[in-house]
Amino acid sequence: MRIAVFSTKPYDREYLTLANADHGHELVFFEARLTEATVPLAEGCSAVCVFVNDELNEQVLTGLAEQGVCLVALRSAGFNHVDLYAAERLGIAVVRVPAYSPHAVAEHSVGLMLSLNRKIHRAHARVREGNFALDGLLGFDMRGKTVGIVGTGKIGEAVAQILAGFGCRLLVYDPYPNPRLAELGASSVPLDELFSNSDIITLHCPLTPDTHHLVDAEAVSQMKRGVMLINTSRGALIDTEAVVEALKSGQVGHLGLDVYEEEADLFFEDLSGTVIQDDVFARLLTLPNVIVTGHQGFFTDNALRNIADTTLGNVTAFEENGGCENAVVIEHLKNVVRLES
Asked: Active-site residue among 261, 295, 338, 340?
């Protein structure tokens, strides 16, 4: 099958090309994101392969269908950027990578917690300048702290396993509880109780209409003063402007982000020679108790191999059987609480 691969970086080309040795598809790589303006690049292709910041709204999908595209292969688990209703109406199948490496994202999440707590980012900058003073670098023991985990799918479970080893008290929220979390000693609680009792809150749920701005001004007001917030799932789970105000007031004491609700024009690009125009994001970067990474939680050798293998395996299954076990269907919108990005 001839596949137009959008949002291609050198590592995408490397891993997809390696995996394609077992499938024999024709891969056409494009650095550009898929948008309404770049739809013509898919001419002559039966499938498109896309990532998290590609646009798959009704207009884009209609343009793809008119060119004969019958398959959208996502290089991700999340599908909030796809208009599934339009895809179904146009006869375009959508397939995804449901689990590439939950441990990669989980370990990155805990890494953000440790870095924020012990001010490792600030200590590193100081030492490079010959400043070995410890003032302002005081942290706390993770052991005994209460961590709230929102979303108990594979990533949330992996985070719980790590933090249980640290001796943390675990509170979890998920409308569809994962019984394995109870075996780790986690307590399943309502969301408002998790917010009000957690020292650290980490988000591992998908972006849906119900979870959009899950952490807003009202939610933050329920939290402990000085709470640490971690988000490695989807940017729009957090109302960034509300959290910035909470950081200024001290209600939020630490913020670790690997995703950002307006990241599409920022992440995965080298903008070091430009002035960032997003004032909210620029403000975040000035705060000493904030760490932002550029959507790199997934970025391990293991995960990239699994993403490439599963993505091309999905295409092969669709080509040979007209369907795929990793297909995304409308019903998934009603039961995606534990699906992870």
From this structure: 295
